[in-house]
Amino acid sequence: MTKKEFIAAIAANANMTKNDAETALNAVVDTIIPALDKKDTVKLYGFGTFSTADVEACERQNPRTKEKFVSPAHTVPKFKFSSTFKKSFK
Q1: Beta-sheet pairing, 74-81 with 58-61
Q2: Phi and psi dihedrals of 31, rounded to 5?
Q3: Under a CB-based contact definition with an 8 Å cutoff, are residues 57 and 66 in contact?
């Protein structure tokens, strides 16, 4: 499903215009991203939890050239589905 199709589905389910649905979706995304930048956790009960994880620096190897390099420490986004959401896929 593309973003355009997702917006159309939101509009149909919420009985709103596609422009309003796009505005709502963009507002949700534009709220989650800065929260994760601040390393906050965003919990949407019944759906899941957005969070971050710190990855330590480590030595890696390029499989093609066998050259070794150090991957710097960084933060990655994570998402964990809620148990309610998981149960709906049986």
Answers
A1: unpaired
A2: -95, -40
A3: no
Q: How far apart are CA 76 and CA 55, in angstroms?
A: 7
Residue range 36-78, pLDDT digits in tens: 999 999 999 999 999 999 999 999 999 999 999 999 999 999 9
Count CB-CB contacts under 10 A for residue 64: 6
Give the number of residues written for the chain: 90
Considering only CA atoms, which of 49, 46, 45, 44 is closest in space to residue 77?
A: 49
Single-letter code of the amino acid located at 55:
V
82: tokens are 């809620």
Single pTM value for the model: 0.78
Which residues face 43 on adjacent strands? Answer: 49
Q: What is the DSSP letter of 19?
A: H
For residue 27 the two structure tokens come to 């507002």
Torsion, Cα 81 87 27 19, to 10 degrees, reads: 140
